[in-house]
Write a structure and sequence with these properties.
Blueprint (H helix, E strand, L loop, with lengths): L1 E5 L3 H10 L2 E5 L2 H5 L6 H11 L4 E4 L5 H12 L5 E6 L2 H12 L4 E6 L2 H10 L3 E4 L1 H6 L4 H13 L7 E4 L5 H10 L3 E4 L1 H8 L2 H18 L6
Parallel strand pairs: 1-2, 1-8, 2-3, 3-4, 4-5, 5-6, 6-7, 7-8
Helix pairs in contact: 1-3, 4-5, 5-6, 8-9
This protein binds SN-glycerol-3-phosphate (G3P).
SN-glycerol-3-phosphate (G3P) binds next to helix 7.
Amino acid sequence: MRLFLDTANVEHIKHGVRLGVVSGVTTNPSLVSQEGKVNYKKLVQKICSVVPGPVSTEVISQDVAGMVAEARQIAKWANNVVVKIPAGLEGVEATHILASEGIQVNFTLCFSVNQALLAALAGAAYVSPFVGRLDDIGEDGMTLVKDIVQVFRQYPEIKTEVIAASIRHPQHCLIAALAGSHIATIPYKVLLQMAKHPMTDAGNARFLEDWRKVMGDVKNI
Ligand code: G3P
């Protein structure tokens, strides 16, 4: 499973790329807004220059013509830009038009297997089931990821990749990987949490303590 960062924060993205584990980025209007009143195009272009892989960014329009017009502009901003189109009938139609023009679409705000199937049939490059937001309303978001992966696997002609989104904690990430999700897009905080384990910290402290007792501060053997 690949990892994308779900953020518009350039410093966090640079860190993830430096670690060698982040191969893409997803943003949305809320995440971009967290960076202040920025120049949207410049921010996305900056992110695209920092990340080696796909960078998803969302349209604001809600009607088909508006989504398509916006997406066509966004698609020109960088070679690795992917346009996020919200689920719904308008989104399906817009996705079909854009995909037929060779524009990569991330079909977002997906909350059902049927929406994911429509995304795949319309030609979306990615579909983003929102796990945490389903958990928030008392459903099991990861079941949606598992079901989409299972359905897509039965039809080799489906090339749409599943991005487990709205990830809230490392356990979500683990289950997405076990489910066979192609990608999980995770908040920076979750990336940091994934590297941590109290036993690693305790073990490391013990090793250093044992070493120093005998070797002092000598580093080279
Ligand atoms: O990728 C989708 C994500 O940005 C939504 O996450 O935590 O706002 O539900 P959240």
